[in-house]
Amino acid sequence: MNWPISACRLSSVSLLSAVLLFTAAGCEDANDLGVELPGTAAANTDYRDFPVTASTVLRDSFETQKATRILVGRVRDNVLGTTTATAFLNLKIAQAVVAADTLPSAVTKLTGVDPNPQLDSLVVEAAFDAVYGSSTTPLRVNVYQLAQPLDDRETYNAASSVALGSELGLNVSTRLNATARRRERTNSSSSTDTTTIVVTVPNNTVRLKLHGGGRNLPLANDVFSLLKGTSFTQAALTAVWKGMALQPAADFNTAVVGLLPSSAARAVFYYHYTNKKNTGTLKGRYSVAFGLGSFQSRENAPRYFTQITNELPTGSPLARLAGANGATQSVAAGETDGKVYMQSGNGFGAKLEIPGLNELRQLAQPVDGGSPAIAINRAELLIPVSPFANLLFPQAPSAYLYEVNATNQSLQRTLLNNRVERLVLREGVNPTGAGLTSIVDDQYSNGYYQNAAKATLNSPLNTFYTMSITTYVQAYVYDKLGGPTPAAFVLSPYLRKFYELDLNRAVLDGNNIKLRVYYSKLR
Fold first, then answer.
1. pTM of the model
2. Which residue, 474, 339, 354, 346, is CA-closest to 403?
3. Separation of alpha carbons 384 and 54, rounded Å
4. What is the mean pLDDT of residues 1-28?
């Protein structure tokens, strides 16, 4: 149910007036808010909109390791500047072998003569499902060997960096708007009509050729020699190819591409060999994985992460979010034309300061040590979207609310012997996390992060977000948070431990965010 963004403010209205207001606005019945009819409860019901002071912050150190996407590229916009994404990847022999793959050493067993496999090309391939920016310009990257493989004992995030080794390919390009032709049935639901037509479909596959077609890469020949031998192992592969980095070329700034770490994320060796009649050649291929899809679990998959950096516009108020102390700064909506920004992949968040929470806490103070003076019936954040302000990036479909201190650092608590960031949890869940049985997702929906309250967009209009936080406001007002009171909150599309990685953005109307609260004054 979507509450209207603009509404009359009532103060100390009667129960009957409150019911009429709900009816006119298309909202719930008064009893749904836990309010009785006049004369049956010793309470008056108030409805108030508390103003929210909004600003933009830039958070750091969020997870990109083994995320749902591998981001590569650079994109520039006039407001938040330039975002650069570099991928760092380990390579691993897949547990699930692609049907088309055959080790060059194995073709000897299939022929009656020496097959003499010869390397034709080495291509880094991956499917993609997102282009943040323009898809008409080919993606251009520099590919490097890693100086050392990514360490399985280390944790990598968006701010991490690792040493690079030798160049594997400079200014390697791939199309982002390629198409393919395939034959499809005209009527796929018919059991008798087998008529087909040829259709053109997008070919969303990145192909970076490191060897072949005029490129000569000694490393490709070294690894292929291992593939032709009888002792090809993970240790042997890692000794020669320690991993790779995909870095956008210095003058490329038109798009960031979201690669999928599926079974198609591979470095593919294409080769030919002599057929068993010694009358010609046959083609073969073998691939080494760098994604998740070729392994039985996320833990067994090769390690990878995306490094994301932001170059903020010079002269903009947002520029003070850069630098060593940038994470402690905030830029008020009044400095950015009334707008505040949040974006999933690069750390921008909307800082929300809500003085009305302390006002409600004062109103709730019990008289003479008795029960609280007010009862919170319903509370929700109403967050309007600034229209026509986000044309380059997809709209973030949801967001989450983090409790922070005065310097924008997340408050933490210990839960199940783990330190976790303090999040506003969904309705009905103890705001301290008490009663939950795990930190990450579990099949019983008892994971801490999977119980985060969610601000949802009113699709398809996409004009505002709403977040129901009644349980949280009750805990705040009655001093049941189980720790320090937050100085503010940060609204962000990014949720830790969910492995989601994208560049979805929201531009919010920072002057009109409000906390709407329905509460009863108890007699």
1. 0.88
2. 354
3. 12
4. 37
